[in-house]
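Protein in question passed on here:
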Amino acid sequence: MYNDRNANLYTYKKCYLLVVKSINFVDIQIIFLFTMTPKQLQNIAEMEGILNKIEDFTPKAEEFLKQWQELLPEVQKLNAYYGSDQWRQDYDDANAGKIPEGMPHGVLSEDLAYNALGDQYFLAVDFLKLVTKIISREE
């Protein structure tokens, strides 16, 4: 048994030496306490934090991906409509005042549909770049 009065702690290379003297100061025990360096411990703590972030983020990313996959057929439908003869006819008729008053028709604005579809496209490109980095394990 040891306490503060009969023990001294020293560091040597990557381990601690605990020198314990018996109560009568005759017997001396040297106990090696191997430990990691402070740099190693700091790195482990940092990596643990990163692991926790990944574990927290992954289910959110999976849910987002699922929602985006479910939205894709509708995005494709809007894209097909936006470039169609039907859209052009609807656009012309709305501008001629044939659309009922109060009916939302932002889809007939050239900018809104174009921007929404463009945003989807460029977001997909950014995701593709990111996924390529993840898969190839690039920095």
